[in-house]
Amino acid sequence: MNDSLRSALEGFIRRQAGADRVSITDVKLLAGGSIQENWMIRADVDGGDHASQLDLVVRTDAPSGVQGSHSRVEEFALLKAAFDAGVTVPEPLWLCRVPDVIGRQFFIMRRVAGIAAAHLVVKDGRYGGDRARLLERLGMELARIHTIRPPRADLGFLAEFDGPPALHAIRRLRAFLDTHHTPHPALEWGLRWLERHAPPRGDIVLCHRDFRTGNYMVDERGLTGILDWEFSGWGDPLEDVGWFCAKCWRFGPGGEAGGIGAREDFYCGYESVSGRRLDRAQVHYWEVMAHLNWAVIAIQQAERHLSGEETSLMLALTGHIVPELEYEVLAMTEAA
User: Most confidently modeled of 100-104, 117-121, 134-138, 251-255?
Assistant: First the structure.
């Protein structure tokens, strides 16, 4: 972060916080964030309502994006809605809608302690505390997210639709594959299977749509925050449950719930807050959907690299997981 950008952020925080003086004393570009760019900053604030040393995260756009990802203005609204609903998320503080300050839209939130790296959370028992309790807590948090329901004026940018959410998702995925330059017959097969077995429309809730290990923060005691709301939208609550439990998000041979433990612990936490029993048989359907959805996102991630928009080894390698996802789609639909 150069001196000009640092000075611009200091001025923005000073104005938003009503402070007399702001000095950024530490800056670090955070790892991860394949779709967005995150900077950790430490700011000394004199005067105003936030006079203290603040540990913050500046979240802005990466050089190129993925189709369907929300803008920073929209993501800030989603984060605020979740915070107000009692979900454990970083507190959203200030939004910059115009690019005049740093050249891009951005928002600033409080930094939460802990780590999110999935390979560490799954394999290292030092993080997350008791795994059964962690899964129960994650289920409870997801149920709180699902208390957010339409209509919501503050979330008016989220697309509303008639009919079953599953068919709406299928149309979106098929529209991408129909215009993509490379055919993917296994994914087309999976979409047809999903179409034939689509559940009817039920409760419509706010789905996080990337609720998985790697997108929540934990420390040695347990959960500290739910992250990454850029794909959220209205949908079937089981969509998030299936995504969390899908094999593609277990990061190894660990437990079926997020790679860290048993499904029932996660389910029980969800049911304790939602007051409704999850249809366990129907979760399988949404796990197939998760593999299809992740395969399309992986194709889009690789295209960001191949098109020259953003040169990245990580994006290039993401494209290589598509055949594995296609295999899982075939295996899961054959078994069903």
Answer: 134-138
Structure tokens at 7: 């000075």
53 touches 44 (CB < 8 A): yes
CB atoms within 10 A of CB 245: 23
Listed in sequence order, the residues at least 6 apart from 82 whose beta carbon sits closer than 8 Å to its beta carbon are 89, 144, 145, 148, 226, 229
Inter-residue contact 215 to 295 (CB < 8 Å): no
At residue 36, does pLDDT exceed 90?
A: no
CATH classification at residue 69: 3.30.200.20
User: Could you tell me if 168 and 306 are in contact, meaning their C-beta atoms sit under 8 angstroms apart?
Assistant: no
At 52, list the tokens: 């203290």
Q: What is the pLDDT of residues 61-86, one digit of tens each?
A: 876 556 678 999 999 999 999 999 99
CA distance 223 to 212: 13
On whether both 66 and 166 belong to a single domain, the answer is no
Residues 136 and 85 in one domain: no
- Strand ranges inside the chain, DSSP E: 21-29, 36-46, 52-61, 92-96, 106-110, 205-207, 216-218, 223-226, 233-235
Same domain membership, residue 88 and residue 187? no
* Pairwise CA distance, residues 261 & 164, whole Å: 31
> Which residues form the domain of 224?
118-335
Going by C-alpha positions, the residue among 250, 290, 257 that lies closest to residue 137 is 257
Q: Which residues contact 172 (CB under 8 A, 6 or more apart)?
A: 68
φ and ψ at 70, to 5 degrees? -75, 155
